[in-house]
Amino acid sequence: MIYSTDQSIGAVVERLHYRQMLDNSILVVVSDNSGRIRVNPGTNWPFKTTPQIFYGLHEGDMRTPALIWSPLLTKSGYVSDAIVDVTDLLPTVLEAIDGTDSLADERDIY
């Protein structure tokens, strides 16, 4: 699975480079490790006490890899140990490129 993911990301990078778009791109790679709905759903702590999101997008104690890469980013090699949700990606990317969006309610981690 890792090999396949690596090959797929490599193909995207090669295509962006071929089209001369890589220098103006932001690559966001995230993973999903959520529990299955209604069949051994895993643990959603600390969110599992909230019924409306028990089978939602939030997995409280499952860590999955994520990365953001771009030649446009100013912080090279930045690593965050913060608790991050996929909804934090938009404000993070906007902060990294000095952009704004009045609809971004989440927090940036950059």
UniProtKB/TrEMBL annotation:
The entry's keywords: Calcium, Glycoprotein, Metal-binding
Keyword Metal-binding: yes
SUPFAM superfamilies registered for this protein in UniProt: Alkaline phosphatase-like
Cross-referenced InterPro entries: Alkaline_phosphatase_core_sf, ARSB, Sulfatase_N
Highest taxon of the lineage: Eukaryota
Sulfatase N-terminal domain sequence ranges: 2-97
Short name of any one Pfam family annotated for the protein: Sulfatase
Cofactor(s), by name: Ca(2+)
Molecular-function GO terms, alphabetical: metal ion binding; sulfuric ester hydrolase activity
Family membership: Belongs to the sulfatase family.
Protein name, as recorded: Sulfatase N-terminal domain-containing protein
Top-level taxonomy: Eukaryota, Metazoa, Ecdysozoa, Arthropoda, Chelicerata
